[in-house]
Structures are given as C-alpha cells and as structure tokens.
Amino acid sequence: MIAVSKVAKRFGGLAVLGDVSFSVAAGEIVGLIGPNGAGKSTLFNILCGIIRADDGEITFEGRRIERLQPHRICQLGLTKTSQIVRVFAGMSVLENALVGALLHARTVSQARVEGRAALQRVGLAGSEERLASDLALVDRMRLELARALCTRPRLLLIDELMAGLNASEVGTMLDLLRALRDEGITLIVIEHNMGALMRLCDRVLALDAGSIVAEGTPEAVSRDPRVVESYLGEKFARALNS
Amino acid sequence: MRIDALWGRRALLAAGAIALLCVPLLHLSDYTMRIATMTCVYVVAAAGWTLIGGYANQITLGQATMFGIGAYVSTMLFVHFHLSPWIGGPLGAIAAALAAAVIGFLVFRLWGAYFALVTLALAEMVRILVEYAQPITGGPQGISVPFVRNSLWLLQFPEAKDYYEIAALLVILALALARGVQYSPLGYRLRAIRDDEVAAKLAGINVFRTKMIAFMLGAVLSALAGTLYAQITGFVDPDSVLSITLSVQLALYAIIGGAQVWWGPLAGAALLVPLGQAMTGSGSAAGAGLAKIVYGLLLVAIVVIQPLGIAGFVKDLRFRRRKPAAPSQAVSP
Prior knowledge:
The complex is a heterodimer of chains A (242) and B (333). Chain A has helices at residues 40-47, 70-76, 93-101, 108-122, 137-150, 167-182, 194-200, 218-223, 225-232, 234-241, and strands spanning 2-11, 14-24, 29-33, 55-60, 63-64, 78-81, 155-159, 186-190, 203-208, 211-216. In chain A, the strands form 2 sheets. Chain A has a 6-stranded mixed β-sheet, with helices on both faces. Chain A has 10 helices and 10 strands. Chain B contains 16 helices and 2 strands. Chain B has helices at residues 2-21, 30-54, 63-81, 85-107, 112-132, 134-137, 164-182, 185-195, 197-202, 207-233, 238-241, 244-257, 264-281, 285-305, 309-322, 325-331, and strands at residues 143-144, 235-236. The longest helix of chain B has 27 residues, at 207-233. Chains A and B meet through helix 2, helix 3 and helix 5 of A and helix 8 and helix 9 of B.
C-alpha cells in the first residue's frame, strides 16, 4: 500500500525526522506511537504532502508521491485528519462533508447525499444544519473524519481521534475504524490512548526523536525497552501488560 | 414544499430582474438615470471582485486593473481600428482574464496582507505602464472615444441614461454568474479555501487552480464593466479607470454590501455610488472630501458592527424572524 524509504526532514537546524523507513500493507491498521516531539505529526504531514521531505522516497500504490501536492495525493486516495482539528468553521456540518465529497461527486446535490451518509456513519446525523464552529471539539473531530471519508480514501491517516472521548465513545470509534478497514481502507493511527491502540492495531511503530525505534505487534512494542524508557514509562508498561 | 420554495425564490429573482429593467418607466430625471446607469456599471465591476475577494477572501486591491484593461482595450480598438465595442469588449475581457492569470500566478502563493499589498503594487505598475505607452494609450492625458453617431452597433448614445438597459442587462448577467458560482462546486471550494486552506487541500481541492478560475472569471466581469464605462463617459484615463482609489472602491462596495453573497455588490454599490455621486455632484471640493469620509466611516462601522456587511444584517433578521416560529410549530402538530 505505502512504502516509506529513508525520509528525513529538518526544520532549520533541528532534525525532526532522520531516515524513517517502513511500509504498510493493504488492509492493515497500523499504530504510530511516541512521545511528544517525536515527529509523528510531521511524518503524517509529509505523507499527505502538506510538508515536503528533505530527503527520501514515498511510494503509494506503486506511485512516487513525495513531490506531489496535497490535493493530488488526496485524489490518489490518501488523506488525513488533523491533530489540531481543521473544519471549515463558517460552513454548516453538512457543507463540510459535502466539500470532501465534491472530489468525486459530479453535482452539489450528489455530494450532499454522500455527505449525509458519511455524517450518519460518524454519529453526526441530526447536526447537518449546525454551524461547524458551534460543535464541541469531539464532534468537530468526528466531522473531520466524515469529510476525510467523503474523499473516498484508500489509506487514511488519523491523528489522535480518541482524545476527549469517554470509554463508550472510544468503543464506538474503534468499531467504526474496524468497519472502515473491513471496507478496504487501510489505516495509520497516531494515538496516545494505549489501551484503545492495543485493541485496534495489527502492528505498531514507535517513533522517538525522529526515528523508528521499535516495530511489531502491540504487545511486543509495549514491552520493548526503548519504548518503555522513552514513552510509556516502567509503571505504565507493566500495568498495560499485566 | 421545498419545490414550492424553490420556485418562489426563482419567481422573486425574475421579478427583481424585470424590475431592474423597468426602472426607466418611472420617468426619473436624466441626472438620476445617469446615476442609476453608473451604479449598474460599478455593481458589475464589484461582482468581479466578489468572486475572488469575497467568496475566497483573497482581498485583492488591484481589481481596477481589470476594469481599466476592459476600458482601454475596447477604446483603443475603436480609436485605432474602428472596431465595435461589442467585439472590443469581449476582447478586453479576454485580455483581462490573461492579465489575471499572470497576476494570479505571481500572487496566489502569498498570504493575507502580503497578497493585498502585492496586488496593489502590480496594479500601480500597470497604471504606470499605460501612462508611459502614450502613443497608443494617450498616456496620462487619457484617450477619448470619438462620438460617431447614435448607434447600438457602436454602443454609442447621446446620453448616459440611454445606456441604462444595457447596463441593467449586464448586471443581471453578472449577478446570475455570481449566484451560479456561489451554489456550484466552485463556490463551495472557494468557501472552503476562505475558511482553511490546508484543510481544503486535504479535502482534495486544487487551491491554486480554484483561486485562478475565480480570479479570471471576476476579471471578465470587471473588464466588461470597464468597456461600458468607457462608452458611457466617452473618455478613459489612468486616474479614472486604473487608480488605487477605484480598486479600493470596488472592494468597499462588495464588502459593505456583503462580500460572501452574490447580491452583496448590488447592495453595496446601490448604497454607495448614489451617495458618492450626490456628494461629489454638489460641485464643491468639500462634497468630494465628505464622500471619502463617509466611505471611511461606513467601512469602520461595517467592520466593527457587522463584518458580513448588509448581507449580515439580513441574515440576522431572517434568523430572528424564524426563531420564535420554531416552538409554536412544535406545540401544534
């Protein structure tokens, strides 16, 4: 699905990512963990073209994408939801979703139908006519997911979607993400909710100081000494695996 | 129910268009009709600004360039080659669209204040170029459209008021386009860009191309208005059609009327053009100065009280009117 090879990025003198390589197969759900500042969000921004890598190659479904514009990458079927929620604040909830659907829909009314369906899926049915800026943060995150789904992604990058959700909402969200995978959407998920991540992911990548320090099943990665030291901490790791 | 509402709205729009065309039946004074005609010209020019400045919030301060290109191209073709403005106007519109493509290529990577400043600087460059190209443009002294005869084909009539029907038709055309864009995929993409450019890109929108289309379409409208202006006044010079003042005025009409809706330029120009004409028309320098002060105060008032312009007030009114209706419906099923 996607192969990332030796991607590097520096902001001025600060090396944010150095030599990151990994690949994700179609149908996988891959978690991306690491402490704040490890470069997770930067990596997402590079994958979807918001930031250009200084070095390295990214191949998405057999096509090199590291020099493409974000909208081109989105058209190919790769987009993301943002950690800092980005909805169109001056538009209604339905219009937000509709804008995503316009990528494939021929008419506004067709896009509206697709938008409604996506809102239904993420649990925003009934809020269609509300102003996006009036939504609670959690709902704005859902809206961003709906908009992303409307672009019909084949690989979706999700940056911290569980923050602020209660336990039952986390469960609903996990069900939704699994359902998306079953429909053929491959997922890479940045998440600090380790419990949710371990239930969701087939595989986890751990990023620290701009490089991948561990990779494997959620259980293996959460026991990895480097991950425990840099991110989880001894106590939490023991609790997680007990 | 929805279909009825849709047809009701269409009927209302058609009625508005017919009313606009029927204004001469009121037998207003020549002076009033002249102002009405000029108002139409500025509505069209400001509608051109709205497509990019309002819908996408790319505040360009160089829309006079498009107006000026329309005015100069048709006039020069008429003076040098005796070409009818019916041909010169569309050619001017094409020239303006090409100029918009070049300017857009230079400025669409810029953001906010930088964008506004560079569009302003480029517009000044165009004005200076026209002043230096004296042999063909008439330079700073300008160029006259010689009156040949009263003729629809030459788009020449003795009085400004005789242009009214054509100006009103152009208004209908321009606002129909602006409205069409507002509810089209292009309109939604422009709104998305206005709200968040990065999110727009992540939703698969080609931001550069979308802005470019809107800018070029707007250039066509403003240029057509420019051609009509030149025919009505019979005279074109850099100060009247290429000035910063005109660029700012066009932006003001749209912003004060409500830059995010298609009828904003109509509301803004219909309020401000007659106001400006009345004050400058008094013949005194004080009146002309007063017009500028009133513009300034209005802009400040709009920015402070209602950033969405007159359209914002209407939106509020509608909202307040609907609000009490909701519970009563709920009680009586």
